[in-house]
Amino acid sequence: MITMDYHLIELCRVGDSSAIENFVQTYQQDIYRLALSILDDSNEAEDATQEALLTALRALDSFRGASSLKTWLYSITVNACRNRLQRHRRHERLTNILGEILQIRSTPSVEESAMENESDQALWRAIHNMDPKHRIPIVLRYYHDLSVAEIADILQIPEGTVHSRLNTGRKQLHDVLKEGRS
Amino acid sequence: MNSITHDQAIKWIHCRLDGLLNERQLSLLEDHLNSCDSCRAYAAEMELLPTHLQNEFHARWDDKTGPSLKVIKLVTAKAKKFPITNRISSGVKLFASVATVVVAVLLLNSVISQLQNTSTATVETETANNSLLAGDRLLAFSSTQNGNSDIYTMRADGSGLTNITNDPATDAYPFWSPDGKRIAFTSDRDGSGQIYLMDANGSNVIQLTNGEGNYWLDPNGYTPWSPDGRKLLFFHKSPGEQSYKLYAMDITDKNTTTLTKEPDRYLLPSWSSNGRYIAFISDADRTSRNLFVVSSDGNHLTKLTENLPRNDFFLSDYDWSENGMSVFFNTNRSIYEANVDGSLAVITKADETIIDWWNGIAVQRAETHWSWLRPDGSQSSQDFCQKNGQVLGIAHKRSYGGNLVVGSNCSDRGWMLYWANPDGTVVDELLSSPIPTNLDTDYLTDITWSPDDHFLAFISLDTVSRDVTATLYILDVAKAREDPSIQPLKMSNSFGPSWQPVVNGDIVEQKPTPAETPLPSPQPDNKLIAFTAAIENGNLDIYTMHADGSGLTNLTNNPAHDVNPVWSPNGKHIAFESDRTGFMQIYSMDANGSNVAQLTDENADHRIENLNPWSPDGNKLIYLQRAPGDENWTPYVMDSNGENKKPLVNEANTHSAISWSPNGKHIAFIIPEPQEGLPDNREMRRIFVVDANGNGLTNITKLLPIEEDIVDGKYSWSSNGQSIRFIADRYAYENGNGKSTLYEATLDGNSLIEIDHVGTHMVDWWKGTSFIDAFASSEPLMWLRPDGSFSTLEPYKNCAFSNLQYGPNYRRSLKGDLIIGAGCENGDWWFYWANSNGTVVQQLLNYPIQMLEGNTGFAWSPDGIYVALIASSSDTSYIYILDIEQTLNDPSIQPLRMMLGGGGSEYFGLPSWQPIP
To answer: What is the mean pLDDT of residues B420-440?
Structure first.
């Protein structure tokens, strides 16, 4: 992730147009990619990116530089994604109920349609079924190549907890892969 | 240590994956792996996993591009407005103008001191005197015109300007009490910020708070006064703390309730109109703002924004509904109504940000204009004034009567103000000369309508750099609409306007004052409830008592079983069943148990259980009779003195839901009828009607498709007694082909009109709102309203997961409120209340009532105030009486409970409330 000049951040805080554009251009790709890896749904990731960028820009006043800007932005993005994951199930259920009343046939979920390769299905099903508290460290470690310390900073949990969550996640996925091979 | 254990090795394999081992540990692990085949194999597999995952992740996500240009543009456009909108809408407003000052009162002092250093106040009334009518209504505000901040009052035309605090300390942010007699304010005359109360003329100053740290009234939006004028909302921050808590104080005894247990950044607290709840915004980490409600006793903190769907985030505006049981709030894309229990319904959606909502009319803020979107689909709009294609500031405020003032800042021209009627069909320019401004960041705040919609007060706040200038304007809106050239009254270095709610001359009501005696206790409720109980000697008798449990009286006092009392329509007599002759017979007695009359005397059993036997005029009774050895019952009608008994039908059958028409001319009931054409001639329930003499038996549902069945075996009469409404559904519903239809049938059965239908299992219908119980315990109950909005309730949310659940049972009151009960497998029943169209749904008690033997149903008192229910566990039955409003207010309340005796609910039947004469 490229980091921005702190002078530019100051300008963003006072609403300078070109500084804000620069901020959005600088960070949108990384935020989107993080959101995509957590939500595994490009539409959801778009919305989470929008939410995270707006949240960050609105809250720039509270960014004091105690953590790196990247860690701070990643924390905001992870939180936005977590909220989405929590809301998702409830929302989906309501949509289905409404669909039933209005006799609308619901479309298959993005998650289902994305699973094209049958051999990957078991692994991806396991990834989707994982508790986000295990899944998020796994994607941060193995897609975003972050260290345990960086993940701990982003998730605001002790390093030991990150390690144990990675362990649990790895064991689950290892078992799935092993079962698939046998 | 020269070697590690097997278990240690497995752990360290994972540690190595996370780069957590030092060189020595790595070496020890390597040694172990060299000597342990299984560990080596496991390590190899685990080492492969990261590569596998990395490949999978990259293959899946790398080629996905995003976010779209739309997101980037939207974020950029919105973010540019943050420095302005943050300050306008955050509720921090004046406080936020000096962002570096954290302690509220210090900050207040800072703003004030800056005002003190600028020019002294002048009342510019040269033109204003001509343009404003002198009214008696007073405006209170803070001003630094005497060098330090004091509180002033004056009339809307600027006359009668009086410094009512006149204290060397800082006195600021006055709030009128609802009766217009007193003013609460914040002052540091004690050395720190404290809250004070004074009379309208500044006399009788009382210090309400007296603790360490700072106390203050929120200056940013809503009045801190509870609607009854007894309580004040305030913030308190302990010394050295960054965050603060919200409290309510009863000014009569200074008792204080903590409304937010955790210190945080709270904004815009406000009372519900019924005074039972407080809503507020939490701005914990400035990354997400959320709306909460808490009941006035500090319990039941509920996050209303918890379940916002994707794409929506809470903006900072909200408003209580009129009944105080729900809150309207806006997100970036929708207006929601959130019930105090947290359930959400979308009221309206739009592509652009909705800034306001009023009785179905949404006001939307687009890039260049406001638009009013009306329920009939029509729209109107008003352009912002702009500078270089950009609007520099936006402000709006709805009046008490629904009119809207909207303003936009276009810098070189200043603030333009417009008045719009409630639906936006009339928009008038208010000022031909805009409110002058020199700076792009100037903004309009503290916009305050007078309660009669006549005057508007607002502050123009100039906050560029650290020099703050606040100017108070007062505008006679009616006059400005007629003549936009008039100038508003202007007071420099003044802020925090508060209009007197009641004009002096109109004050008639005395409101509570400190140290005053408590309010008089409510009038005793004389309503009686009749019920069956075995309180004395285990023998079943009929009792009455008041709703509060007082006046318990055994009316029958007879060694026989006396059960199932039902009040006559005039509330003077009670019909009941008794086996004192050896058979169950029908009796009547007066309300005090005197004048007992045996009405039936056949050597047969008689029954009035589960039906209201009394004709609307009280002159006749219907009842069921069954000869010894018979399986089925036959409905009869008789005079209220037991004469002229006639069977209503020729054959005994399983008659149910027998009822009189409201005009007393007909009697309806339900009989299951085999349907030729259905497999096994399957039986479907049908509604029959006879006249009050038992003649003219008619199947009024003869036009109903044979595969449809009367839902729940119930129906309702039209008020004129000429037709019957009922819900029918297809038996095929169970095969997934569901549809429920609300029909209206005439009494001759020749007309069957479809009123409404839904594609699932509707069990009740009230003025267009379908109440849906989809049968599956995993799916919530649902209210579907005619405008397409809906709300839901998961009645079993408090149960451990189980397939075995009881209910849900529900019953409407005469005014349409619904009580719902749902039983978990362990016999815990949970109760809920919903208003007639389900826009407010609330859990009634925050604990379950145990009734393993089931729930007999609910008996609403005719005025809808109380619900009685019988709860039976394996060996004991109780009657509960819930005061619904009281229970909604405090779900931890213990309702009246009385033991009826041993045995299950089948002995005790449903209680009967004395009708309102």
So the answer is: 80
Average pLDDT of chain B? 80
Closest approach of B536 to chain A, Cα-based (Å): 51
* DSSP letters spanning B600-612: --SSSEEE-TTS-
Angle at CA of residue B615, ends B609 and B618, nearest 5°: 105
Q: Do A36 and B53 touch (CB under 8 A)?
A: no
**Are B67 and A45 within 8 A, CB to CB?**
yes
Smallest Cα distance from A160 to chain B, Å: 10
> Which of B38, B46, B56, B75 should one mutate to test binding to chain A, selecting the residue with the greatest count of A CBs within 10 A?
B75
Task: At A89, list the tokens.
Answer: 């199930």
Which of B677, B680, B674 has its CA nearest to residue B699? B674
Write down the residue that tokens 């959606």 correspond to. B349
Residues B643, B645, B650: CA angle, nearest 5 degrees? 175
In a mutational test of the B interface, the residue from A18, A37, A50 whose CB has the highest number of chain B CBs within 10 Å is: A50
Query: For residue A148, what is the nearest residue in chain B, using CA coordinates?
Result: B18
Tokens at residue A34, please?
A: 């993080």
Of B56, B66, B313, the CB nearest to A32: B66
Q: Which of B309, B760, B782 sits opposite A87 (nearest CB)?
A: B309
Name the residue with higher pLDDT: B227 or B113.
Answer: B227
Residues 6+ away with beta carbon under 8 Å from B127: B486, B487
Judge: B307–A90 Cβ closer than 8 Å, yes or no. yes
What percent of chain B shows pLDDT beyond 90?
A: 21
What are residue B849's phi and psi, to 5 degrees?
-105, 130
For the segment B710-715, the average pLDDT, to the nearest whole number, is 83
**Chain A residue at shortest CA distance from B14:** A167
CB contact under 8 A, B79 and A20: yes
Report whether pLDDT(B67) > 80: yes
Q: What is the pTM of this model?
A: 0.43
Tell me if B14 and A166 make a contact (CB, 8 A cut-off).
yes
Total beta-carbon pairs less than 8 A apart between chain A and chain B? 157
**Burial bucket for residue B789 (CB in 10 Å: 0-12, 13-18, 19+):** middle
DSSP string covering B113-164: HHHHHSPPP-EE-TTHHHH----S-EEEEEE-TTSS-EEEEEETTSTT-EES
Q: Mutation target for B interface from A92, A97, A130: give the one with most B CBs within 10 A.
A: A97
- Return the axis-axis angle of helices B6-17 and B37-61, rounded to nearest 10°: 20
A72, pLDDT greater than 50:
yes
Supply the pLDDT for residue B318. 86
* ipTM computed for the complex: 0.85
Up-side HSE of residue B913: CA atoms within 13 Å toward CB? Answer: 22
Mutant choice from A43, A101, A113, A147 vs B, greatest count of B C-beta within 10 A: A101
Secondary structure percentages of chain A, helix, strand, coil, to 5: 80, 0, 20
Q: What is the tens place of the pLDDT at every residue in B815-842?
A: 899 999 888 877 788 899 999 999 999 9
Buried b / exposed e along B77-114 (16+ C-beta atoms within 10 A): ebbbbbbbbbbbbbbbbbbbbbeebebbbebbbbbbeb
Question: Could you say which of B74, B86, B309 has the minimum Cβ distance to residue A50?
Answer: B74
Torsion of CA B764, B765, B769, B770, to 10 degrees: 40
CB contact under 8 A, B49 and A173: yes
What are the tens digits of pLDDT across the range A97-123? 333 333 322 222 222 333 334 446 778
Residues of chain A neighbouring B285 (CB-CB closer than 8 A): 59, 62
pLDDT digits (tens, 9 = 90+) for B39-65: 898 899 888 899 989 998 998 888 888
**Which residues, at least 6 apart from B673, have a Cβ–Cβ distance to it below 8 Å?**
B683, B684, B685, B686, B699
Q: Which of B457, B490, B453 is nearest to B140 (CA)?
A: B457
